[in-house]
Amino acid sequence: MSDTTYADVVAGVRAAMAAYTHALDDGRTDDVVATFCADGTFESPGLGTFEGHDALRAWFGSVEPRQPQRHVVVNTHVDTWTAQEATATSDLIFLLMGDKGWSVLLVGRYRDQLHYDEDSGAWRFHRRTAEFVTETT
């Protein structure tokens, strides 16, 4: 990516986040895993750390949705960037459909390290950390 601008990086990072979120909410485990580098890691206190495609596939496959859900990612800020690497922070609202309609299940924050994959022309998560700051019942 020669002549890469901040806007280019932000667009690519947001595209990776959207691909991850849509696949996660749709229960498409292989598509979730594809948003990570081969040595990518997902980490969340209380849930664990999962590194590499096999571990990621096992984890995300174990949490496929059983009812409609939405991960709403907002306030994304790309903190640092080059043409090959970026870090970003985003807020997360997790909605779940229940008998009485949609409700907020939790609120959290993603902290991401992403790498640009020249072969696919897409940004991939190298490390994704999810921290939940509020849980509701």
How does this model look, in words?
With 137 residues, this protein is of the alpha+beta class. It has one domain: Nuclear Transport Factor 2, Chain: A, CATH 3.10.450.50. It contains three helices and six strands. Strands 2-1-6-5-4-3 form a six-stranded mixed β-sheet. The longest helix has 21 residues, at 6-26. It is globular.
How do you describe this structure in short?
The chain has helices at residues 6-26, 29-33, 53-62; strands spanning 36-44, 48-51, 69-81, 85-98, 101-117, 122-135. With 137 residues, the protein is of the alpha+beta class.
Chain-wise SSE layout:
Elements: H1 6-26, H2 29-33, E1 36-44, E2 48-51, H3 53-62, E3 69-81, E4 85-98, E5 101-117, E6 122-135
Parallel strand pairs: 1-6
Antiparallel strand pairs: 1-2, 3-4, 4-5, 5-6
